[in-house]
Each structure stands twice: as C-alpha cells, then as structure tokens.
Amino acid sequence: MIKTLIIDDEEPARDYLEKLIDRYFPNKFIILQKCSTVEDAYSAIKNHTPHLVFLDIRMREGSGFELLQRFNNLDFEVVFTTAHSEYALEAIKQSALDYLLKPINHLELSSAIKKFEHKTKYRNELDRVRLLLENLDMGVNRYPKVAFPCQEGYKLIKSNTIQYCKAEGNYTQIKQIDGSSFILARTLKKVEEQLPSHLFLRIHKSYIVNLNYVKGYLNTDGCCVILTSNQRLPISSRKKTEVIEKLISN
C-alpha cells in the first residue's frame, strides 16, 4: 500500500481527490491524513513518513514550497496540485516532480501515479546514483572527459560525474555525484569554459550546475533548483528566465 497525505486548504478539493483515489485506485493507497494547513502538514509528514504527498501550492496560511523548504531531506515524493498556472509548471513537469491542475482529471492522476511507481523503484538514493553511473558511458561526445590542471599535471574527470561547481574566490570547488569534492586553482569562469554547454548551466555568479541532476525548481523566497541529492542551489534573478527555458527544453 502507498502511504499518502493530501494537503489542501479547501475541504472540497481534499475530499474530491480522496474520492478519485478510492474510485480509480482501490486497494493501492492508504490515505493517512488530510491536512488544511502547512503546520498540520509538517507534523503529519513527520509523524507518518508518507511515500507520496499530494500538495497544494498556494494555501491561505502559506505555500507548498514553504512546507518543502522546512525539510533538509525529502524522503517522500511530491505531486503538486494547483488551480493556478503561474508557478513554472512546465519546469516542475520536466523535473522529478509532477503536478495536477485543478479540477483534477482521473487520467492525469493515473499518469502521475504511474510516474511515482516508476520512480519508487529507485527510491534509495544509492540506487539512483548507481543508475546514473551506469549511464555515464553512453558516448564520449555526449559526456566527454574534462582535463583540469593540478599540481602534478592534469586530473581527468568524466563530465557527467560532476554534479555542480561552486566559486570559492579565485578557486572553484568541484562537487561530484558520489559526494566527493576537490578544489581547483581556477576561477569559475575558467572552469565554465571547459565544461560542455549542453550539459552545464551557469545559474548564479557562484554556481554552475549539471542539468542531468536537477530534479526541481522553486520560485519562492528567491529562486532555486533542487538537485537529485536534495541540495538547493540559488538562481540569480537575471538567470531565472534562462534556467526555466533550459529546464523545459532539456
């Protein structure tokens, strides 16, 4: 059984979604709780550890994005529900997150649930990393090696093992998908010139991100991207449009 929470500040919307789930997916879900506020939802997630959360984006006492920002690690999947189309929905749809536009159609609900079931095969983060590693050798042209100068000579790194790069003054930190990192005596601008442009995007004066590891986009309290590691990296205001367009087309 899929442990589920429904979070929406409107009772008719909560009840309608519950009826859709009961009617079209009998014996597949257990709805642990229906919540009307961000505070109730936060407590319910902590208490019940759900597999899947149906989350309204805009509520009277806060937003669904604000709720997610209260968790250091998201160990549950999210399907946004909203009656509003101004929340970069295409960016959300292209990521690991999904959304349902109200009034919810049972066919779209079915599609979102199928996506969830597919993703839960790889819920364990280690399994996800292993899956990514298996795909690293899909072709030298798509994921070329990058030669970074070091004290001893050059450090050869497959470009798709890099999760993101962070500026540290005149140095750059290279963060890899296995959790390791190293420092280069090069500016972020110089590093950016070496990276394949189809794979990496400068999202901020201090950050370059590998688009393959972006799973979400948040448009609250200063824009940011969410990585598959659940880290959040800021997006500068002047880069916002470019980032959204790149996420949609990538």
CATH fold topology of the largest domain: Rossmann fold
Low-confidence stretches: 130-140
Average pLDDT metric: 83
CATH class of the largest domain: Alpha Beta
Structural class: alpha/beta
Order of helices and strands: EHEHEEEHEHEHHEEEEEHEEEEEH
Name given to the CATH homologous superfamily of the largest domain: Response regulator
Radius of gyration: 20 Å
Helix content: 25-40%
Please give the domain count: 2
Put simply, the count of helices is 8
What's the total number of strands? 17
The CATH architecture name of the largest domain reads 3-Layer(aba) Sandwich
Q: Mind summarizing the main beta sheet?
A: 5 strands, parallel
For the terminal residues, how far apart are their CA atoms? Answer: 34 Å
Strand content: 25-35%
Strand order of the largest sheet: 2-1-3-6-7
Q: How would you describe the shape?
A: elongated
Can you describe what's shown?
The protein is of the alpha/beta class. The protein folds into 2 domains: 2-123, Rossmann fold (3-Layer(aba) Sandwich); 134-249, OB fold (Dihydrolipoamide Acetyltransferase, E2P) (Beta Barrel), CATH 2.40.50. It has 8 helices and 17 strands. It has helices spanning 11-24, 38-48, 64-68, 89-94, 106-119, 125-134, 188-194, 240-249; strands spanning 2-7, 29-35, 52-56, 58-59, 62-63, 77-82, 98-101, 145-150, 153-158, 162-168, 171-176, 181-184, 200-204, 207-210, 214-218, 224-227, 232-234. The strands form 5 sheets. A 5-stranded parallel β-sheet has the order 2-1-3-6-7, sandwiched between helices. Strand 13 (200-204) and strand 14 (207-210) form a beta hairpin. The longest helix has 14 residues, at 11-24. The two termini are 34 Å apart.
